[in-house]
UniProtKB/TrEMBL annotation:
InterPro entries named in the record: ABC-Purine-Binding (IPR052910), PnrA-like (IPR003760), TAT_signal (IPR006311)
Entry keyword Nucleotide-binding: no
Species of provenance: Nguyenibacter vanlangensis
Keywords on record: Signal
CDD domains the record matches: PBP1_BMP-like
Protein name: BMP family ABC transporter substrate-binding protein
Positions of the ABC transporter substrate-binding protein PnrA-like domain: 62-315
Classification lineage: Bacteria, Pseudomonadati, Pseudomonadota, Alphaproteobacteria, Acetobacterales
C-alpha cells in the first residue's frame, strides 16, 4: 500500500462521521436489519447511475482519502482497517491513501491526483462536499464514494452509519450508572453527527432516569488530545460523573480513570486507556463494507447510491467494561435487541432545549431526519 503525503497543514477538524461494526460486539443479534439500508433522503438528488466497466484485479487501483492520521486510534484507524481488509481480499489490487486531507482546495488537488494516477475508485472517508464533487464530475468513469456525504450523482455515492442507536443503548447505561445525574459530552463541532450522538445518549439515559442531564463542550477538533483532556476535566469538575463524546482519541477516558468516574468512547475499543472507567464504545468496522464495494467495482456492478450502515452491520456498542454491573448491561441490551428487531426509540414527544415541541407524540424520527439533526433535545446544554 502506498501513502502520499499531502502538502500543507495537518487536519484537526474533520468529517461528520460513519462505520461498519463488529456484529459480535456483545451478544447475539436478533433479526438484524439489512446490511445496507438505502436512504430515501437523497432519492431526489440521485442522477441516473452510470454503468462502469469491469476491471481485472491486477489492473485495479483504489485510492482512499483520510481526514486524519491512520494512527489516531479512532476514526481513521477504523477506516485503515477497512483498507487492509481490501488488500487482503484482493492481493493483486493496488491501494494508495493520503492522511489528514484538509478541507480546502488541497483536497481537490489530492483527489485529482488519485484520478491522474489511474485510480478507478476513490473513497473519501469523510465529507468533502464540493472538493470531491468537482473532481467526480470531471472523471465520469471513476467510482467515487464519500463517507457522510449528502449528494449523489451518476458516479458519486455516499454512505454513513446509524450510530445513534448504539449511543442510545450506551445512554441507558449512563442513566443507570450516574449518581449526580450529570452526563458530560466532549464534542467537536455543533453539527448533525454531534447533535445526534449527544441527543441519543441523553434520550437513552432519560428513558430510565428522567432526572439526567447532559452538558457538552465543543473543542473545535476531532483529534486534539490536550483539548479533549481539558474538556473532560472541566466536565468532571462541574459534577459530571459519566463522560462520553465523539472524539478520535482517549483523552477524556484517561480523565475518568484518574477521577474514579465512568466514560464511554467512540470509534474503537479504548479500554486499555482506562480499564476501570471504561463502560463501552460506539465501535466502527468498515472491513466488510469496503470489501463488498470494491468487489462490485471490479465486477462492473457498482452503482452510486446513498446507504446507511445499520446497527449490528456497521456500528454497534463495544463489549461492556469490566466494572459495568450485569443488571445494567442487561437492561441496556434489552433495548439493543428491540432495535435489532425493528424498534425505533426516537419517538415523540421530543422537545428541544428551549422547551419547544419538535417531535409530536406518536411521531417517529427516521434515520434521514436524525442524520440531519441540528438542534439539542431538552436537557442538553452547551451545543446550541
Amino acid at each position: 500500500m502506498t501513502m502520499y503525503r499531502p502538502r500543507g497543514r495537518l487536519l484537526t477538524s474533520r468529517r461528520q462521521v460513519l462505520g461498519l461494526a463488529a456484529g459480535t460486539a456483545g451478544g447475539a443479534l436478533l433479526r438484524p436489519p439489512p446490511l445496507l439500508a438505502q436512504s430515501p433522503m437523497a432519492g431526489s438528488l440521485r442522477a441516473q447511475p452510470r454503468r462502469l466497466a469491469p476491471i481485472a484485479e491486477s489492473d485495479a487501483l483504489v485510492a482512499f482519502g483520510h481526514t486524519g492520521p491512520v494512527t489516531d486510534g479512532g476514526w481513521t484507524t477504523a477506516h485503515d482497517r477497512g483498507v487492509r481488509a481490501v488488500r487482503q481480499a484482493f492481493p493483486r489490487l493496488r491501494t494508495v491513501y493520503v492522511e489528514s486531507i484538509p478541507y480546502s482546495a488541497d483536497a481537490t488537488r489530492i483527489f485529482r491526483q488519485f484520478v491522474a494516477e489511474g485510480a478507478q475508485m476513490v473513497i473519501a472517508t469523510s465529507n468533502y462536499g464540493d472538493f470531491i464533487r468537482d473532481v467526480s464530475d470531471r472523471a465520469p468513469d471513476v467510482a467515487f464514494m464519500e463517507c457522510d456525504g449528502h449528494g449523489v450523482s451518476g458516479n458519486l455515492g455516499w454512505y454513513y452509519i446509524t450510530h445513534w442507536y448504539a449511543s442510545y443503548v450506551i445512554g441507558i447505561a449512563a442513566g443507570l450508572m450516574t449518581r449526580t445525574n450529570k452526563i458530560g459530552f466532549v464534542g467537536s463541532f455543533p453539527i448533525p453527527s454531534v447533535y445526534a450522538g449527544a441527543n441519543a445518549v441523553l434520550l437513552g439515559a432519560r428513558s430510565v432516569n428522567p432526572a439526567a442531564t447532559l452538558q457538552a463542550i465543543s473543542i473545535n477538533a476531532w483529534f486534539d488530545p490536550q483539548a479533549a483532556t481539558q474538556a473532560g476535566t472541566a466536565l468532571a469538575e462541574n459534577g459530571c460523573d459519566f463522560l462520553c463524546g465523539i472524539m478520535d482519541e482517549p483523552g477524556y477516558l484517561r480523565v475518568a480513570q484518574q477521577r474514579g468516574i465512568k466514560a464511554a468512547m467512540w470509534n474503537t475499543d479504548m479500554r486499555q486507556y482506562g480499564p476501570d472507567a471504561y463502560v463501552s464504545s460506539v465501535v466502527l468496522d468498515f472491513r466488510a463494507y469496503y470489501v463488498r464495494q470494491v468487489a462490485a467495482r471490479l465486477a462492473g456492478t457498482w452503482q452510486a447510491q446513498p446507504h446507511f450502515l445499520t446497527l449490528g452491520h456497521g456500528v454497534d456498542r463495544d463489549s461492556w467494561g469490566r466494572t459495568v454491573p450485569p443488571d445494567i448491561a442487561a437492561r441496556a441490551d434489552a433495548m439493543r435487541e428491540r432495535i435489532l428487531a425493528g424498534y425505533n426509540p426516537f419517538r415523540g414527544p421530543i422537545r428541544d432545549a428551549a422547551g419547544r415541541l419538535r417531535v409530536p407524540d406518536g411521531a417517529v424520527m427516521d434515520d434521514d431526519r436524525i442524520y440531519q439533526w441540528d438542534w439539542p433535545v431538552e436537557g442538553v446544554s452547551g451545543l446550541d
